[in-house]
Amino acid sequence: MIPKFIKKRIFKAPVVNNTTSVTDAKPVAAKSYSNAPINQLYRKISGRTLDVAVKAKILGELPEFDAADQTLTFYVLQDYSRSNSILIDLQTQEHKLPPALVAVKDAAHHIYENAAIIFLHHPKAKNSQLSPRLSRLVSAILQYPDLQIRLVPVSILWGRAPEKEDSLFKLLTADNWEDPSISKQLFNIGVMGRDTFLQFHPAQDLRGVVYKSLNDDLDEAAITSSIEDSFNDTDSFSDTDDSVDTVNLTSSNNQTIINRASTTTDGLNNTDNQPAPHTLVPSADANRELVRTLQQQLNVYLDKQRASMLGPDLSDRRNLVDKLIYSPAIKHAIENEAQASGVSVHEVRSLAKGYANEMVNNYSHQIIRVFDRFLTWLWTRLYDGVEVHHFERVRELAADHEIIYVPCHRSHVDYLLLSYVIYKRGLSIPYVAAGDNLDVPVLGPLLRGAVAFYIRRSFRGNPLYTAVLREYMHTLITRNTPIEYFIEGGRSRTGRLLPPKMGMLAMTIHSQLRHTNKPVAFIPTYIGYERIMEGGTYVGELKGQPKETESLMGLLKVGRKIERIFGNVHLSFGTPLHLNDFMQKFDVDADSLPADRTDTPLDAKASAMVDNIGVKIMQHINKAAVVNPISLLSLVLLSAPKAALDEDICREQIALYQGIAHQLPYADDTVITDMTPQQIIDYGIKLKLIERTPHILGDIIQIADKQAALLSYFRNNILHVFILISFLAALVARNGRIERSRLDDIVAQLYPFLQSELFLYYPAHGLTDTLNQKIDNLLTHGLIVELSDGVLSIPETNSNSYQQLEVLATPVGNSLERYFMTLALLAQQGSGNFTAEEVVDLCHLLGQRLSVLYADNIPDFFDRSLFLSFVNALIRLDYLRKDDETGVLTFDQRIDDIALYAKYVLNPDVMQTLQQVASLDDDEIAHAITEIHNKKQRKFGRKR
Prior knowledge:
Layout (H helix, E strand, L loop, with lengths): L3 H4 L29 H17 L3 E3 L12 E8 L2 H13 L9 E3 L4 E3 L3 E5 L10 H12 L5 E10 L9 H6 L8 H11 L3 E5 L3 E2 H10 L4 H13 L7 H6 L6 H8 L25 H26 L6 H9 L2 H14 L3 H15 L5 H18 L2 E5 L2 H7 L3 E6 L5 H12 L6 E5 L7 H8 L1 E4 L7 H16 L4 E2 L18 H12 L5 E10 L5 H8 L9 H8 L8 E6 L3 E2 H7 L18 H20 L2 E2 L1 H9 L6 E3 H17 L7 E2 L4 H10 L3 E4 L6 E4 L4 H10 L1 H17 L1 E3 H19 L8 H14 L4 E2 L4 E3 L6 H10 L3 H17 L6 H19 L9 H13 L4 E2 L6 E2 L3 H8 L6 H10 L4 H22 L1
Parallel strand pairs: 1-7, 2-5, 2-6, 9-15, 10-13, 10-14, 11-12, 11-13, 17-19
Antiparallel strand pairs: 3-4, 6-7, 6-8, 14-15, 14-16, 18-21, 20-21, 22-24, 23-24, 25-26
Helix pairs in contact: 2-3, 4-11, 7-8, 8-11, 12-14, 13-14, 13-19, 14-19, 19-20, 25-26, 25-28, 29-30, 29-31, 29-32, 30-35, 33-34, 33-36, 33-37, 34-35, 34-38
């Protein structure tokens, strides 16, 4: 607190009243508060004291100002606080921003302010509750067309906890929605000083905000929109002279606003006791309403930013469960279940309450703080670093959108890692939909208290459970709680994206169609590792070993790996997808479902929209891929004969992939490692994934023992980035020469299957242009040669370029081999003999056999989802027709036509091997189908 004897030194200047002419009033030569010697001393001592106790963490990007810019800068805070003022002043000094506690003087425009901070709720605002400084600045803007003032809203949080908590200590320390008392603020400084967060929001031109309001004739809704638009538009800070020219100050409405006289000056008097600017327009009712509206919208803006950092107000878990069970939607579901099952409503309600208790999160800021400290230590021990890309696009949406994070799922670490990154960057932690297999002793309650709400892995055929989950999701969404779920439904065992599971996505859209609150924005998020804890178990599971059940013992086993080296981990936030855009595209109306029902089905248009959004999310995750050193090294070495290369050749091949990716990026969001090829090789050796074998003719780089299967996982993370250029390279390399037109035809026939498997975003209708760009890329790097008449050719076979072309052509091979094997099985067994599930199961079985016998145990052939994706693509493209009653597949000659295209890429020996593996007689097929069926039954029995 500032002592009274200091406050008395603040100079009290005369105030211009309505009876004094503007030209007669003269500025009073007063020493400003911040420049008075005793106040300079106070500022210095207070600053040093606070600097020792408080270490604020800056969130978001710092504003950047031109040093030569003469624009006056004022920082906007909601509530008056001396400690906050000093903290902002310290941060502006540290980051070379315009100072906050230094007088702002502009004699030309009669601006005399003792500090550059605007408090929206100022203790001297008196009855009108208007900020005196904001009032004076708005009046000055209206009077002086050449005056430039920028406002920088600032959020400060002393600790971070949602409003409702049951701990007295947390109520004393954590920042919430209430204004802190003096005692609490002092306690915050002492206890929470090291957990303080500060964010400078984008600077805005005060004139632009004011004149937008004037042009809207002070319509409140229009003013709200204009100011919100201004604060969301980083380009709104433009040439103010142009802004003035666009405003008709002589219009009748604006004349009324500026010149209508009033004898009342409450709220616009010089309540900060500063020299009164003698040319300010006398206070008027219209001016006061303008300031009131601007101040209200500044408050709304800062409230939204605060909510995005703290999260919504939280009710305790017991009350939330009760609200769920007694909501109209669940009452209806309970009555339906009671009628269908023949049991009492009371019993069904108890069952529904049990379901709710299974799933509802039990958020505890205390547990969050424990996880914060533990994970900071863990990531330091486990990883060399956590690299985050494109996070600012999330921050820009957080205040005004319901954020749904939809990351890919690589590891159990994903849950904690993504939440940690979001928390550390100042946004509210999302509630994470986690499988109930993680609800194990010790770990389960901790995750529930931090980020998790648990759902069953399967609840098909249980309408009551579905209703409770839908209503809980609806409650979270309507309360503007950020949510996270893994759209793949489970962890990928091969490194590729799995086909999306639409259940949670459909529930999100179902909620939005029941009641529209904030617009929904999906955030596709790519997560990439350089080593993964579960790598060994993934390979085993793909080969048929039973999946390990999560348990405390399993957690302890993982803990033993903390000392191992796992490199860096990469998070990349993709381009957001806005639900409103899809609703317009598919002509789906908002609020089109009953608000008090959970069982209203989505119509055909909404269902098609769900499917489309699911695919787009997967494509945007792949767009945001990070080509890290290990994934790039894996792609190169696994494409080489015997997974080994001369070190010089290895460096050249890595440089080639980098050059191809940089010259023609897969997408704007794709990130390519900036390590040099030699650094990449050394890094792989450091992580013990590859090894260097000395040789007199040149060192050899090869994959370390038993690491090939694991490296295939990291290769598959980025396979989509290079798959088309690999396909083109293979067509040229395998044929020696090929016409461009023929190449286009072959790719067009097989591209839909690659697109389905790898979620490629290139549209089929514009594929020719994409192919031409990639061919030009190959020509630029000298990997192929263009002859006359549109013929493409390989370079000299004894050249370095030809060897590089051969390596580049390899990655597409595994996908095409799987396609050919599936087509061979269908062709040999004939139409009308199998269901889709039987075809997938048989192909999965044949793939396992092929991998063990011929493919060095590479896991790609063990992944059932890859065969499922191909069969579904054949059905979707009408190559296979599925009987609605029996599910049996029929097909015609076109299946053989597709298989013929494989000869342009696969060599004859490989094709013969695949045909032999796919050759099964009736007894073998019957035995295989029976064994697969029995295995599934045993697995289903264990789950139940």
